[in-house]
């Protein structure tokens, strides 16, 4: 083979190798969501690429046959084409034997560099940049190759399947998209500036609805404003003025015997019409939704949807009322910092290394604020106050503290055994070991 013909053969082999490299990476890197969108837009080749991704064995077998055959031929043709010419060139300065060796090494380096640059690095970077676009473009020629090499592909494919079967390795790709995949994508989008940090946090909060219990969003028992069934008009008016809420439970005797709820809109309408407020009116008191305290927020939302209500009373396993929750409470959990006035914030950052946190703050919010993955015995409590009780093994008192995860949790204020405020401070390395201290 003459020198020009050898160079043409090398160029052709490089193009073939580049084609196989591009076909391999574009199929592997193609995103199924993008391919489905291409199919919806009318590109039928995208559907065929999706099917190949589900069972890519024959496709990759053809690529490996082509790449290995081209690599071997490239070495043979390159050595025969360049070595004699380079040996004669180096023979001007070196003896014949040395010139032959140097010429061979130079030929090997040149051919290897050409293949690495133009048949490997360049096409693979091209395929990574727009994998879906190139996957549909190389589909037709790859299908021709698969038909042409059917017997060889069948042999190598069956042999490979047998090896995988003997090793017990799964060959089908799992393309199910999990919540972790979606969260990872949104976090990447936030880092890239495509999503605002607050928007990314809202998406993360939505996925937490399945794991957060209703206790993390409810109004605690001691903060509930309620009416007794036999409260007179003046008591009802005074309670509304003192504790304005949109909904009030109506109880018989005490808070643990809820008989219904009354909507503030109905009360205001009667006040404007100069009517007496009486909770014995059956049209004024509505049937209340009672839910257990172990339900998740997602389950509570589902119950709201089924009964067309936006208010529920939460009871524990002893049928004692532990709190109330509204649809707005659940949505505030999802929206996070995007809603709610500043004076109601449960977590206030004082400076770089300290936070003032309300005792009833859900533990998930505390973890997020402090960038902690978990707290010990996290299945035994829902709030920061619960964490301190579990760690101290008693009802905390002022100045009691717990050290964990590089932070000191110190009780600042206790009101009737209820932890009102906790100071959380970042510890130095010497004081970061886990401990519980009391008076």
UniProtKB/TrEMBL annotation:
Membrane topology field: Multi-pass membrane protein
InterPro entries for this protein: CBS_dom, CBS_dom_sf, CNNM, FAD-bd_PCMH-like_sf, FAD-bd_PCMH_sub2, Ion_transp-like_CBS, Transptr-assoc_dom
Gene3D superfamilies, alphabetized: 3.30.465.10, CBS-domain
Localization: Cell inner membrane
Domain CNNM transmembrane: 1-199
Gene Ontology CC: one annotated term: plasma membrane
Domain CBS intervals: 218-277, 284-344
The organism's place on the tree of life at top rank: Bacteria
Pfam families in the cross-refs: CBS, CNNM, CorC_HlyC
GO molecular function per UniProt: flavin adenine dinucleotide binding
Keyword Cell inner membrane: yes
Transmembrane segments: 102-122, 134-157
Keywords of the record: CBS domain, Cell inner membrane, Cell membrane, Membrane, Repeat, Transmembrane, Transmembrane helix, Transport
Keyword Protein biosynthesis: no
Family: Belongs to the UPF0053 family. PaeA subfamily.
Role noted for this protein: Involved in cadaverine and putrescine tolerance in stationary phase. May facilitate the efflux of both cadaverine and putrescine from the cytoplasm, reducing potentially toxic levels under certain stress conditions.
Protein name: Polyamine export protein
Organism annotation: Diaphorobacter aerolatus
